[in-house]
Design goal:
Blueprint: H1 2-5, H2 10-34, H3 43-71, H4 73-94, H5 102-119, H6 134-159, H7 165-186, H8 198-226, H9 228-234, H10 239-249, H11 256-273
Helix pairs in contact: 2-3, 2-7, 2-8, 3-4, 3-6, 3-7, 4-5, 4-6, 4-9, 4-10, 4-11, 5-11, 7-8, 8-9
């Protein structure tokens, strides 16, 4: 997504990603439908799943992608993925009645310190630098995106009690994609997919495929069986994978503050899960 965001509208990237994700998930639903395993889909659950798809996938993911050209993956990813559990705990305690323990509070404090260190680490060394004034805009976009993801998790947890996870994932992906497609038509800014290179198309297809099985299926399964709070905190370990990739493939440099901040955040994750 960081590669695509250098030359494509963030809303177009996420719209295509979500619509391709729902397309790749369709064969699984078809097989389950033939076998009679889809079950029922209450109207209330549909409304919650649509809200989750629009809020977290449609709007939240778009804001996150929009932040990448401003602050880079090596800063945007740790900030978003560590603030996301904190916001989700607020949602879990107020909406879902989940209990917050002292260990959870201590871990959350480490997560906050880790985020501050990452923010203070300085602008990532990008191959395509942007003005310094854009850094604060990028950070704000990431913070709002994390809050929207948490709200989307709350809607998802409320919806998946009696809904097949594959169906829930499909509804989320499709509703988020259609919302963004309508939004772009309203803005009179077409996707312009016919102008994309082979590498851009390959990237779009790849993230669509990954979205189908991660956001579309695995995350929904995890939230249903492990709870929104635990799943959101477990995602905090993803900087271990994202930061090396940003260093190797996007030309971003990682300094000691970024590394230490990420390490503290992951330590906080361990305390939360105790």
């Amino acid at each position: 997504m960081a590669f695509l965001a250098r030359s494509m509208d963030p809303f177009a990237i996420v719209a295509v990603r979500l619509l391709l994700g729902s397309l790749f998930l369709s064969p699984i639903l078809l097989v389950m439908a033939i076998g009679g395993g889809l079950g029922t889909l209450p109207v209330g659950a549909v409304a919650l799943l649509v809200a989750s798809g629009v809020v977290s996938l449609g709007i939240g993911d778009s804001l996150y992608v929009a932040s990448l050209p401003h602050i880079g993956v090596s800063r945007a990813h740790p900030i978003s993925i560590t603030l996301f559990p904190l916001f989700t705990f607020i949602v879990a305690a107020t909406w879902l009645g989940e209990v917050i323990t002292p260990s959870t509070l201590a871990g959350s404090a480490l997560i906050i310190v880790g985020v501050i260190l990452v923010v203070l680490s300085g602008k990532a060394k990008l191959r395509h630098p942007v003005p310094a004034s854009h850094s604060s805009r990028g950070i704000l976009l990431v913070v709002v995106a994390a809050a929207l993801w948490a709200a989307g998790f709350g809607f998802l947890k409320l919806a998946v009690f009696d809904v097949n996870p594959a169906t829930a994932g499909y509804v989320r992906l499709l509703s988020g994609g259609l919302f963004l497609l309508g939004f772009m038509l309203f803005r009179k800014r077409p996707l312009r997919l016919q102008r994309r290179s082979g590498w851009q198309w390959a990237s779009l297809v790849w993230i669509g495929l990954m979205t189908a099985f991660s956001t579309g299926l695995l995350v929904v399964l995890a939230v249903k069986y492990a709870g929104a709070a635990k799943v959101s905190v477990l995602t905090s370990t993803s900087p271990l994978f994202a930061l090396p990739l940003a260093f190797l493939f996007l030309g971003e440099r990682i300094n000691w503050r970024t590394g230490l901040g990420t390490a503290l955040a992951i330590t906080g994750t361990y305390l939360v899960l105790r």
